[in-house]
TrEMBL record:
InterPro entries: AB_hydrolase_1, AB_hydrolase_fold, AB_hydrolase_sf. Transmembrane segments: none annotated. Residues 18-202 form the AB hydrolase-1 domain. It comes from the Bacteria. This is Acyl-CoA esterase.
Length: 261
């Protein structure tokens, strides 16, 4: 059992093996990275984090002030206690946006950055169609009942009718997590760094997307692809949830990228 609540430590932390840090998407948990963890555990130390409100992590103590700084504080505390300075960062969706923020703020600590459709909505110009779409989407989720909000959210990132086909137990669990999803939107839209700030990242970047994903996700990838200095683009015949729905394929690609970085 990890000595850090909601943080799974995999591998030999008595060694000096390189470190991989994993951040999952909203409505998910650290368990989504099972394939990558399996591939990397013999050669890396892995810090697999349940973001607050998900998995084994605690709930958010002060919802009104929740932002990425709250998650960063947890992350930095783990690194300090383990005496880790450099690491490979991996993130998906909300976790990808968090990983991107951490890389912007501590670029010299990042060995590589692997992102699957990071939902860094705040990077869109406020007058843009994409920004308006992101605000409309988040507002629709916020203003609905938990069950309906879960349906809107999961259908948007998967396909129309996706939620209806899920088992009742899963629907109930997703609905219960919707207050945290709303806090995730809150954290995303509170960010203030700009696209130009991303150029500070010198580490190699793997930027991934799903061919079947949404317009908003594709526009984020398009915007970010021109912002990094050293970027590799990779697409999969899947949607936004490819790291979960196509876990072995996507996570094997991430592992190979880290190995070659």
């Amino acid at each position: 059992m990890s000595k850090f609540p909601g943080v799974q430590l995999v591998g030999d932390f008595e060694s000096d093996l390189p470190v991989i840090v994993l951040f999952h998407s909203s409505l998910s948990s650290s368990k989504q990275w099972w394939a990558l963890t399996s591939l990397a555990k013999a050669s890396y130390r892995i810090i697999n984090i349940d973001l607050l409100g998900y998995g084994e992590a605690a709930e958010v103590e002060d919802p009104m002030s929740y932002d990425f700084a709250v998650e960063k504080k947890r992350f930095v505390s783990v690194l300090q206690q383990l005496s880790i300075e450099k690491y490979h960062l991996v993130g998906h969706s909300f976790g990808g946006a968090l990983a991107l923020k951490l890389a912007v703020e501590s670029p010299n600590n990042v060995l590589s950055l692997s992102l699957f459709e990071p939902v860094a909505f705040h990077l869109f110009e406020p007058q843009s169609e994409e920004y308006r779409e992101a605000v409309t989407f988040s507002t629709t989720v916020l203003n609905n009942t938990p069950h309906k909000a879960a349906e809107v959210f999961t259908n948007y990132w998967n396909k129309p009718g996706f939620f209806v086909g899920l088992p009742h137990k899963m629907k109930t669990l997703m609905a219960a997590d919707m207050p945290k999803v709303n806090l995730d939107f809150q954290a995303l839209m509170a960010e203030r760094y700009a696209v130009d700030d991303i150029s500070i990242i010198n580490a190699p970047v793997l930027l991934m997307s799903g061919i079947k994903s949404t317009h908003l996700a594709h526009q984020i990838i398009k915007m970010l692809s021109g912002a990094f200095k050293h970027v590799t683009l990779k697409s999969f015949n899947a949607g936004h949830m490819a790291p979960v729905s196509h876990a072995q394929e996507v996570q094997a690609e991430i592992y190979q990228f880290i190995e070659n970085s």
